[in-house]
Design goal:
Helix 11 crosses helix 14 (400-420) and helix 21 (591-605) crosses helix 23 (648-663). Strand 16 (498-502) and strand 17 form a beta hairpin. The protein has an eight-stranded mixed β-sheet with strand order 10-17-16-12-13-14-15-11. An eight-stranded parallel β-barrel has the order 19-20-21-22-23-24-25-26, surrounded by six helices. Strands 1-4-5-3-2 form a five-stranded mixed β-sheet. The protein is of the alpha/beta class and 845 residues long. The protein has 32 helices and 26 strands. The structure holds phosphoenolpyruvate and magnesium ion.
Length: 845
């Protein structure tokens, strides 16, 4: 433990000579961040604290680290390696009443420039971070006109208050009653935070006595808002009125989606089979249903994994660097996971990771960690403590939605911890008995769940967690019956206690009699038969009533995802997005590793076709470790094929790995993304021919993605040089309608069934037909049953989609006549608007 700064350093007045009057400048108005840093550095130079070269070092630091501490305070400081330029420790404070933008959406009013030789400055930082929890005192410093008052406040110890404090409302306000059926959970809260952050006004949300900063996700979640709760949203500052109007629009716009999601979830749970009822009442531990199915077996209680994080203090600046780096690496990784999940499963599922990434931006959480570091604790210890404290706060609110968020928070916290110090990586396979068991745990992280030995675990029950936690979702994907939030009683069970876990009703029945077990076994047998029937139906081809067959593929990126795709009825993999092999990790996989992945994909597919798309890096898929130059308009820049042609080492490595896999057998095709011009196709084909010859590998079909209007319009030209086309409607829509595919406000207008996009698809099919080539679609609209029907009518022969969309698309096509689909497609091409096309839904079968 560090000595208590209160007693060890000074009781009142200026702390040593760190914060001297000549180091304070009130009422400054620098033109921008750089000028503010230079001005503060000038104070330190004049006071003899630093060499003049240290100012440049402070500016360099801004390029690599975020020195905004939160709540209007920034703490610029120099690079670690330039510490020699510090002559003696000192702190300069620049007060900027009008504020300056430190980073987009972050305004600094106090610029606290640090020149630190040792850790003598920690006392002031500690006070600063404490002050951050006393908003009123801190904001008063932004405009105070008496320098001694400023210095005195920074020298005293401010009392620590709870993260959310009783308080009044700000100048402008509106009232709202929560009408989200599942309360304010992370996904809508993230949207609130994004809207709030887009404005400079101070915005808060009050529920009863509790007040949360609308720009802080965890604080909002800690309000624990449930449906029916009344809140007051208020704002003050320059654009308060407009900011509140935007907040209101966001809050109310989300209502429809939240209700629809809740209704869909309810319908899903009604549609899925009901749980098992024991013939005789049994003692049971109730929890929350997380993944359906029955498991019969002894329980095995996993002792609480005590993560022991040693407290190893390091100089504050170094600690800050390590935390910053760990946070940004984790953010990158989560972004990649979110992208991949969005493409494979859809935006709702991807929101898990977006929300986890948003947790990392939470100033309160990061500030709490910084505070602990400032108090003299080690970086890993401080981070772990901050996460634990915040998670415990969420879990204590007795709200299942928030319990799930606590599990997510701990999981994301663990990711960061492992980045700070790889030795703190937890997880891996727990010690399990040889006989299959129902695993009981306090909580399991998604990574622990993924690592479970499925031969030895037949069910999962956790004391904590929530049904929307990623762990629960993973259990459903693994087909593992699971319940969550069973409470402390679960952990008290004796190892080996016989039990029946019902993942549908969320109950763990204990000590069943023979008759109960027999009844449960019969229930499982009936369920298995029902599932087999369902799978058999999914396995039928997508053949229209008049005998026209469309190939149905899955969009999957990894060999371990193939089995799920096949069980959903996939006949091939129509799109393997290989950039995710690069995005989900911190370095680029080499040729051997790529070869093994492609070979494993082909093996898992057992002779079924596999279309591997060459790297589509750029646009929204940035790979930081490739260190590509920053682009103003990445969607219109060096992306996909353009990048491959400029980076032969990337292209060659991938093609060599692919042709080596082709030599091992299987039905491989290679496809190139973002093709715009014939020259690109010719150059890529030449590279393929050369590498194939070098490796003496078999020829494989070579295709291109049609994602750019130019490629669709010139399809008749391009078709003469490729074996097939696959239309990427996500990008084709973005480029045809000039709508950024990630734009939150325009998303609803970016409809792939817009007649303009349909006409481009038609042109592509016509161009391909001239050369006898086939056309597939692997963009999102292929997985929409009505979209699939229209695409079939337009002449598309293969549809590749997210695995879980397959059964509905197959059902729709099997219930249709090709002639009717053709007519519907023609009508759609003649429509004037996307809405008119959508209105045709239902009339084509
Ligand atoms: C598309 O653009 O439709 C597509 C399938 O590619 P991605 O989503 O990976 O850009
Ligand atoms: Mg694309």
């Amino acid at each position: 433990m560090a000595p208590d700064a209160n007693t060890a350093i000074m009781p009142t007045g200026l702390p040593n000579d760190l914060l001297r009057p000549d180091l304070l400048r009130l009422n400054a108005s620098p033109a921008g961040k750089e000028e503010a840093i230079r001005e503060a550095a000038q104070l330190l130079i004049a006071a003899g604290c630093i060499d003049s070269a240290y100012a440049a070092s402070m500016l360099r630091r801004e390029a690599v680290a975020n020195t905004f501490l939160g709540h209007g305070v920034a703490i610029p400081h120099g690079m670690v390696e330039d510490r020699g330029l510090v002559r003696r420790s000192g702190i300069a404070v620049l007060q900027v009443p009008g504020g300056i933008e430190w980073n987009p959406g972050q305004t600094a009013h106090l610029v606290v420039a640090i020149a630190a030789q040792s850790d003598a400055h920690i006392a002031v930082l500690r006070r600063l971070t404490r002050l951050m929890q006393d908003e009123a005192r801190l904001t008063a410093l932004f405009t105070v006109t008496d320098p001694t008052a400023l210095a005195a406040t920074l020298s005293e110890d401010a009392p620590v208050t709870a993260p959310t404090t009783p308080g009044g409302d700000l100048a402008e306000r509106f009232d709202w009653v929560v009408d989200y059926p599942t309360g304010l959970h992370a996904r809508p809260a993230t949207a609130w935070v994004e809207t709030a952050r887009a404005s400079t006004a101070r915005i808060q949300v009050r529920h009863g006595d509790l007040v949360a900063d609308a720009k802080a996700l965890v604080a909002l979640l800690q309000l624990g808002l449930r449906a029916g709760d009344s809140v007051v949203v208020s704002a003050e500052g320059e654009d308060a009125v407009a900011a509140l109007a935007r907040m209101k629009a966001t809050i109310t716009r989300l209502t429809a989606r939240e209700k629809a999601d809740a209704a869909a979830a309810a319908q899903k749970s009604r549609a899925t089979v009901r749980g098992w009822t024991p013939p005789n009442p049994l003692p049971a531990v109730p929890g929350i249903a997380a993944s359906p199915g029955l498991a019969i077996g002894p329980v095995h209680v996993l002792p609480r994994a005590a993560v022991s994080v040693p407290d190893e203090p390091v100089p504050l600046i170094e600690g800050g660097d390590r935390l910053h780096e760990a946070l940004s690496l984790t953010r990158q990784n989560l972004k990649a996971l979110a992208d991949d999940t969005a493409r494979r499963l859809g935006p709702s599922e991807a929101a898990i990771f977006t929300a986890q990434a948003e947790i990392l931006n939470d100033t309160d959480l990061v500030t709490l960690a910084c505070q602990l570091m400032v108090e003299g604790h080690g970086v890993a210890w401080s981070w772990h403590r901050a996460v634990e404290r915040t998670a415990a706060g969420l879990a204590a609110l007795d709200n299942p939605v928030l319990a799930a968020r606590a599990a997510d928070l701990r999981d994301v916290g663990q990711r960061v911890l492992a980045r700070i110090d790889p030795a703190l990586r937890t997880g891996g396979a727990p010690d399990l008995p040889d006989t299959p068991c129902i695993l009981i745990a306090e909580d399991l992280s998604p990574s622990d769940t993924a690592a479970l030995d499925m031969a030895r675990v037949i069910g999962l029950a956790t004391a904590q967690g929530g049904p929307t936690s990623h762990t629960a979702i993973l259990a459903r994907t693994l087909g593992l019956p699971a319940m969550v939030a069973g409470g402390a009683a679960l952990m008290e069970l004796a190892n080996g206690t016989p039990a029946i876990l019902d993942g549908q009703t969320g109950r763990l029945h204990l000590s069943p009699a023979e008759a109960d077990t027999a009844d449960a076994r019969a229930w499982i047998a009936r369920e298995d038969a029902r599932k087999a029937e369902e799978e058999a139906r999914r396995g039928l081809p997508a053949r229209t009533r008049d005998g026209h067959e469309v190939e149905i593929g899955a969009n999957v990126n990894r060999p371990d995802q193939v089995a799920v795709a096949l069980s959903q009825g996939a006949e091939s993999v129509g799109l393997m997005r290989t950039e995710f092999l690069f995005l989900e990790r911190g370095d680029a996989p080499g040729e051997d590793e790529q070869y093994e992945t492609y070979r494993d994909m082909l093996t898992a597919l057992e002779g079924r076709p596999l279309i591997v798309r060459a790297l589509d890096i750029g646009g929204d898929k940035q790979v930081p470790h490739l260190q590509l130059p920053h682009e103003e308009n990445p969607f219109l820049g060096v992306r996909g094929a353009r990048l491959l042609l400029r980076k032969p080492e990337l292209l060659e490595t991938q093609l060599r790995a692919l042709y080596r896999a082709a030599k091992d057998g299987g039905a491989l095709s290679i496809m190139f993304p973002m093709i715009t011009a014939l020259g690109e196709v010719q150059a890529l084909r030449a590279a393929c021919d050369r590498i194939r010859a070098e490796l003496d590998a078999p020829a494989v079909p070579l295709g291109i993605m049609v994602e750019v209007p130019a490629a669709a319009i010139q399809a008749d030209v391009l078709a003469g040089h490729v074996d097939f086309f696959s239309i990427g409607t996500n990008d084709l829509t973005q480029y045809a309608l000039a709508i950024d595919r990630q734009h939150p406000e325009l998303a609803a207008e970016a409809d792939s069934l817009h007649p303009a996009v349909l006409r481009l698809i038609r042109l592509t099919v016509e161009g391909a037909e001239r050369h006898g080539r086939w056309v597939g679609v692997c963009g999102g609209i292929a997985g929409d049953p009505f979209g699939a029907a229209l695409l079939t009518g337009l002449g598309v022969r293969e549809l590749s989609m997210t695995p879980r969309d397959i059964p509905a698309v197959k059902d729709r096509l099997r219930g249709s006549e090709l002639s009717a689909l053709r007519q519907a497609a023609q009508r759609a091409l003649d429509c004037e608007t996307a809405d008119a096309v959508r209105a045709l839904d239902g009339g084509e079968a």
